[in-house]
Amino acid sequence: MAKKGGLFGLSSSAKTGNGSPKRKAVYRVFERHQEIMKRRKSDEANESGFTLIELLIVIVVLGILAAIVVFSLTGVSGQSKAAACTSDGKTVEIAADAYQAYTGNYPTSSAVLLTTYLHSWPNSPSYTISLTGTTVDVNTGVATSYAYTDPTNGCASL
């Protein structure tokens, strides 16, 4: 059986476009295959990418970093509650001292301070601030009120 000529039995008419559509399609596939093989050999197409293991390692490392951040921020939020409580207590104390400096007496209720010395009374779900005589007290949910500066029972206990 004689060969029909050309590579893979393709005649010169298939190469030039004078042959059947089936032969043209086979020739295009063959040319594409040759282009791909040339590119592979010449390293034009660098197969750069990440393996599955590399991606999993990155995901695990990011998960560990996220856990560290979450747990470190938990302590910061507790410190911020105590700092806000101390700040609110100091604000009420300064307002009471300003009232005393102006009138000569300490305020008898918090309403007296709201008109001139405070824009609003400190309000928080974690603690309540009260004014008794010459002392600014904080109640953190325990039955007894303590001075806001008390290191064990005041704002520091939040």
Can you walk me through this structure?
The structure is a single chain. With about 160 residues, the protein is mainly alpha-helical. The longest helix has about 50 residues, at about 50-105. The chain has a three-stranded antiparallel β-sheet with strand order 1-2-3, covered by helices on one side. The chain is rod-shaped and about 110 Å long. The chain has helices at about 10-15, 20-40, 50-105, 110-115, and strands at about 130, 135-140, 145. Among the domains are: about 5-40; about 85-158, no CATH class.
Primary descriptors:
158 residues; mainly alpha; three-stranded antiparallel beta sheet; 4 helices; 54% helix; 8% strand; rod-shaped
Secondary-structure topology with pairs:
Layout: H1 12-16, H2 21-42, H3 52-103, H4 110-116, E1 128-132, E2 135-139, E3 146-147
Antiparallel strand pairs: 1-2, 2-3
